[in-house]
Amino acid sequence: xxxxxxxxxxxxxxxxxxxxxxxxxxxxxxxxxxxxxxxxxxxxxxxxxxxxxxxxxxxxxxxxxxxxxxxxxxxxxxxxxxxxxxxxxxxxxxxxxxxxxxxxxxxxxxxxxxxxxxxxxxxxxxxxxxxxxxxxxxxxxxxxxxxxxxxxxxxxxxxxxxxxxxxxxxxxxxxxxxxxxxxxxxxxxxxxxxxxxxxxxxxxxxxxxxxxxxxxxxxxxxxxxxxxxxxxxxxxxxxxxxxxxxxxxxxxxxxxxxxxxxxxxxxxxxxxxxxxxxxxxxxxxxxxxxxxxxxxxxxxxxxxxxxxxxxxxxxxxxxxxxxxxxxxxxxxxxxxxxxxxxxxxxxxxxxxxxxxxxxxxxxxxxxxxxxxxxxxxxxxxxxxxxxxxxxxxxxxxxxxxxxxxxxxxxxxxxxxxxxxxxxxxxxxxxxxxxxxxxxxxxxxxxxxxxxxxxxxxxxxxxxxxxxxxxxxxxxxxxxxxxxxxxxxxxxxxxxxxxxxxxxxxxxxxxxxxxxxxxxxxxxxxxxxxxxxxxxxxxxxxxxxxxxxxxxxxxxxxxxxxxxxxxxxxxxxx
Length: 573
Fold this sequence. Notes:
Elements: H1 2-14, E1 29-35, E2 43-44, E3 46-48, E4 53-59, H2 72-75, E5 78-84, E6 89-91, E7 96-97, E8 104-110, E9 116-126, E10 133-138, E11 143-148, E12 153-157, E13 168-171, E14 176-178, E15 193-197, E16 203-211, E17 226-232, E18 247-249, E19 253-256, E20 262-267, E21 273-278, E22 291-294, E23 299-303, E24 311-318, E25 325-331, E26 337-338, E27 343-346, E28 352-359, E29 364-372, E30 375-376, E31 382-385, E32 395-399, E33 409-413, E34 425-432, E35 439-447, E36 450-460, E37 463-472, E38 481-486, E39 519-523, E40 539-545, E41 551-558, E42 562-569
Parallel strand pairs: 4-9, 12-16
Antiparallel strand pairs: 1-2, 1-5, 3-4, 5-7, 6-8, 8-9, 10-11, 10-13, 11-12, 14-15, 15-16, 17-42, 18-19, 19-20, 20-21, 22-23, 23-24, 24-25, 26-28, 27-28, 28-29, 29-30, 29-31, 32-33, 33-34, 34-35, 36-37, 37-38, 38-39, 40-41, 41-42
């Protein structure tokens, strides 16, 4: 027993007694939250440590996005939850409080050291101070605004001059905006400002800016294809059945040849009919206004069908209000079939090369004129013979250069199947060496039911592209197809032919696909005639590039079917 008592004394001398004081509390009340009696809502109190007051703000409307105003009855019995530090108490206990603004509730907070502090709790109905633009879109221009809430800016990624338009927006609940772009057309070109006013009168000012995006290193941005419009040329635009055959596409306008006294002028971005365009001065004799095209600067060239006139004539026209002026007058054999197609590369007010295929029936030739510094070098063209391919009634030729007659060119043609070129198939698009006039490479074998009738060429964002079409002459509108092909090299110049088994009607899924290794294709039934089938299997294609080089516009038309506008871009998103 003595030994045990000694050990206990030794242990007691080596150990301090337990500290009975609770740990220090640094905050006391961390937060107070109020909810409606049914448990909905969560309203956090704001603590004023100087005046020892806790104010619980409650929104004027609940839910905030609704028009349901909070009533005094809803505030009579609010559930209160206090988050306290360890060893901190509140008296009286918080469970339910009447938080109508005229009521104030006193509580005593006792900390871990038994120190006491009184607070007053009250509710306060507050109108919302939120004044943000949460989304912004110009629907009719298909443009989305990118909102920078910190800078209070809305960026629209476009370089084009925009027409006045309304916008679809969403605001903070119960906020208003002035001017209101939902009801007022706005000029978005000059950085308009919008003042958003919250329910409590707080304001914020947003500025809409047109952003200058970076470009991709080269070529079209994948997935950027956007159909701008699709118009039935007869039903929507009033074109004459069987008679419209060519499109002259410019930056702002498209002129559709009606092969009569009036052509059809439409808006290049919307396809809306502007007017019937009077070309009666060149429409007699018949087929004087047979086909039209446009150069890179927007000058329109209109040609006749020579075998109906004995002389091949080309008129120049400047839209939107010019009159045709005779530009080329080439005396030719009265039986010479020229004028079904005409192409121009460049600007006839500067440098350009103009080409028109001949339909001789014995060999493959086209006429070529050169324009230098705005001067047509000769009324009489150079006649070029292409080796290795033949054509019948449908052919188009376009140069790749505005200055070099020895530059390569592209030929889209309907082959001579009776000659058995490749059995019952022929190559629809041919890349031809401009020096030797021999075919360098042919693209896509199609059978005799498919009539190729148009080609165009452009260099967009450092990448050359060819555009070509065909229609199914046997069942008009059952397999119309558009190919946009990368022509940067012979290796890039590839495509895959598909024999379509069914027609996709207009109004269905309409989109460009990347089924080609180096380009795009489109199939939809746009050739489907809303009038009679076109006996000539006519149609046309055209490229237009925006002046800033950000947008590429593709236009195509199938006679008695539709004219369609598609926009691509090279924006580096």
